[in-house]
Design brief:
Chains A, B: Its cofactor is FAD. Two copies of one chain form a homodimer. By secondary structure, chain A is α+β, with helices and mostly antiparallel strands. Chain A contains 19 helices and 16 strands. Helices cover 32% and strands 18% of the residues of chain A. In chain A, the strands form three sheets. Chain A has a seven-stranded antiparallel beta sheet, sandwiched between helices. In chain A, a hairpin with a 4-residue loop joins strand 5 and strand 6.
């Protein structure tokens, strides 16, 4: 295949992006207050005049999700049942914010992927950590189970009740407490929406250290509780490094205030780390202190076509060398992903058809320098044949348009049929082997077997679709995928967590000694097990 | 004061650094197998022909350090005493590596600052985690206390025994297990010396994410156990973010293998975080997996004189804006620090006398771009009067020479008399107030009250010297310094930890609920309290 751009040049590449026009949408969810549900609002923001072959975006209300307790083999633990007296007690703690209307509760009982559904009869909306402390103290005494809930955007059913757990929402705990202009330290309540925080700090010359497709809905408390990864992980690292302090309410109502944390603090054990990624099972995060990096002055996105996976890897090595400190994302997707976003969402590829596509983002402090680095990199990868076609965008809207191709894959998949989702960490050089392997293994049973994800972090999103749920497809996938991953000493949940749906597979990535210690920690911090039960740790025999 | 360089230019600045010549030494400790003790090897590597006024570098063997149990009010806990049978049992586990020679033991019983001294009669040198597991299982059964020891370079007496604890050295656990060229993941045993690891990964195009003055002696296991900060913290962040996995032997001999960790892993609680910064009190780290950043192609160091502390702060803001992603260190020192390094170590200032000095390091992938950014920054700060004089180095040896001015302050202080050392996190804008405040408070009681440190991280090293130890100086300093810090919601130990000497001050930075949870974690992981007793957590009433 002859290179599309025979004489790659910065301006020329930039122009190419401009031709994308209306066929590329904005990032999913960006700017919307809630995540659209499949079958309802999906695709409502499409501005393209093209007609897609998939008609699901205009379909009627989705069918009801089966109750978790009916679909999965799980037994209710002996917690108390919420009584009228309990509701009255809650009403005294959070007056007017005890929700029992089944219509309102529905959205909080079902996860956004519509795979699990609880039957909670009460949702509480505290505004302060003191209110959370009151609620938990009460629930602890009464042995009532509690399901902490942020934006309910999780991927593993961790954010909704399994049975009748009380839903404790952080939605009204949405105040920014402080922002420090010199250090970039943001302190805020747990219910602040990530996108609103982004706006807040961007007005002050900073950015949030994490970014997710779900940013229009997800809460920072939920991000921390699930140790969310996302699109800036490659550059700014894990929340274990960027979260400076937390305020957490423990199961018995004790307020653990480790919020006023400076950048460096070695006074005793770093307790906040326990709660990062513990999915609300060890305590309820009520406030977060987080370090925000300075806002880059220049952002470029290159969208490239590669002839094979080895070239995707070599392009990554080359780009680490030539882009160095300005590299902020290295994402990849295969040709089937591109087919899906075109077919279901009318998003056209901005480059020639290729077996693989790579999205590279740079963020830097000096546009001219960044452009020079990027151009040198592009010249090299084009000249060497690692890349066969490409386009670059610097304009904010064009950048978002290119990102949409990568970010909306998940949406396109959900329109393709029943989706089997895996979020794996694997050695980068073997990242794609599992995808090709599964295509052979599943044969015509699967509609699509696709691979995409955060290649720069060794994180593969492996997705398989079939017309409808099929036990035989599932049997072909599991435990095969987990065993394959364990064989590579990878992680069976890179960034999505375990929640309810993946808690049974923890042992593929963690030894028995680790699981035992996790259980001991749970027993220490939540002896009655009232916090987000049936999540993270597997059921005990 | 007129700027020294009326027409600042890149090449000109570089030349200025070359004039430093022989009067600036290499980094302290770099390349030496052990840290020199004050009064013995100090200054032995000086190449300067100048005669220093201080004669301590040639003094005879230092006087013996008082035993900790005699100097501090601490009571031995009811552990067993090592018997002949115990020694025989150890000999079976680590044959030929059970050290009881008092001459050899002396170095391991005394901390390098010579402030604390234990009386251990046995030092064990395991080579594998299995041997560590055997030892701990035995000690746990026999109720024998154990003091894990790495390079013994800690600042708070955490690495030496208080009474007769068995010293468990990681010195022979010094093998690199693997290095992954694409991801930069290094896996190694805990006893690897930081400088040797640096060499290992630098040969492969990477650097360690941390760097310390003590790198020639300190062990990576000790770095992780103390959550070491150091010189690259500003750029690469905390070990909580860069450590990917750990192998830890628990108090009862259980091997907790969380070593084969990919970049992203959300399968359950992140157990390794518990051990980072726990100073060997919760488990013995036996192997480390750590993420190494790519080696920068260009490193520049600028050494600048500032007319006041407000200018130091404004220079920091300016430099964050103009240097952006290539900024890798922002250190400051006051005029008294410069006096001390000149007076005691014959290090001459490369710039005109100033109230404050700033050391700025950039690390980037493209020398030309970095030089341009740095030059623009320097022009701006000189023109605006934020900086009155400066010099820049790019050559490796000159870079080291400039760093020596900052890194050897601690050594110069130790030659000035008795040193009262504080390592505080404070809001950056108030960082220096405490120093000026203490100068007034102490008056002529103190020889010197100096402030220096990692300003970019809000970390002040506050040091006070007097001719000899003086209870009245100590009374004037404590608890005043801790109360002042707590009043600013700072940390009373930013990076040095608590160890033995600071464990009593934890409550200035942590609330009672946090301390209670720390004690519960200690009791859970080490129910008999055999691991590094008398450290980190305050004695219980």
């Amino acid at each position: 295949m002859a290179p599309h751009l025979v004489q790659p040049g910065w301006r020329f590449w930039r122009q190419a992006a401009c031709t994308l026009g209306a066929s590329v949408q904005h990032r999913t969810w960006a700017g919307t207050p809630r995540i659209p549900r499949p079958g309802s609002l999906w695709g409502a923001t499409t501005t393209s005049p093209r007609i897609c072959r998939s008609g699901s975006s205009t379909s009627a209300r989705a069918p009801e999700v089966t109750l978790t307790r009916e679909r999965y083999p799980v037994r209710r633990l002996p917690f108390s049942v919420v009584s009228r007296e309990d509701l009255e007690a809650f009403e005294r703690v959070v007056p007017g914010r005890v929700i029992t209307d089944p219509e309102v509760l529905e959205a909080s009982n079902v996860d956004w992927l519509r795979t699990v559904r609880g039957s909670s009869a009460v949702l509480l909306r505290p505004r302060t950590s003191e209110e959370v402390a009151h609620i938990l103290r009460y629930c602890h005494e009464r042995n009532l189970a509690v399901n902490p809930q942020g934006g309910n955007t999780g991927m593993v059913g961790g954010s909704v009740p399994v049975f009748d757990e009380i839903i404790l929402s952080t939605a009204l705990m949405n105040q920014v407490i402080s922002f420090h202009d010199l250090s970039g330290t943001l302190v805020c309540q747990a219910g602040c929406v990530l996108e609103e925080l982004s706006r807040h700090v961007e007005e002050r010359g900073f950015i949030m250290p994490l970014d997710l497709g779900a940013k229009g809905s997800c809460h920072i408390g939920g991000n921390v509780a699930t140790n969310a990864g996302g699109l800036r992980f490659l550059r700014y690292g894990s929340l274990h490094g960027t979260v400076l302090g937390l305020e957490v309410v423990l199961a018995d109502g004790t307020v653990l205030n480790c919020l006023s944390a400076p950048r460096k603090d070695n006074t005793g054990y770093d307790l906040k780390q326990l709660f990062i990624g513990s999915e609300g099972t060890l305590g309820v995060i009520t406030a977060v202190s987080i370090l925000c990096p300075p806002k880059p002055r220049a952002v470029n996105v290159a969208f490239l076509g590669c002839p094979g996976f080895p070239e995707v890897l070599q392009t990554f090595s080359t780009c680490k060398g030539l882009l160095g400190e300005i590299l902020s994302a290295y994402e990849f997707m295969d040709a089937e992903c591109m087919w899906l976003v075109r077919h279901h969402l009318c998003l056209a590829s901005p480059v020639q058809e290729s077996p693989f596509y790579v999205l590279i983002e740079t963020s830097g402090s000096r546009a001219g320098h960044d452009a020079e680095k990027l151009n040198d990199f592009l010249e090299q990868v084009l000249r060497s044949g690692l890349v066969t076609d490409g386009t670059v965008a610097t304009d904010h809207m064009k950048v978002k348009a290119l990102w949409a191709l990568r970010e909306r894959i998940s949406e396109a998949l959900s329109r393709d049929g029943y989706v089997y989702k895996y979020d794996l960490s694997l050695p980068t050089e073997r990242l794609y082997d599992l995808v090709t392997d599964l295509r052979v293994r599943l044969g015509p049973q699967a509609k699509h077997v696709v691979g995409y994800g955060h290649l720069g972090d060794g994180n593969l999103h492996l997705n398989v679709t079939s017309e409808a749920f099929s036990p035989s497809v599932l049997d072909a996938l599991e435990p095969y995928v987990y065993e394959w991953t364990a064989g590579q000493r990878g992680s069976v949940s890179a960034e999505h967590g375990l929640g309810f749906r993946k808690r049974g597979v923890i042992s593929y990535s963690k030894p028995p000694e680790a699981l035992r210690l996790m259980r001991q920690l749970k027993a220490l911090l939540d002896p009655k097990g009232i916090l987000n039960p049936y999540k993270t740790l597997p059921a005990q025999a």
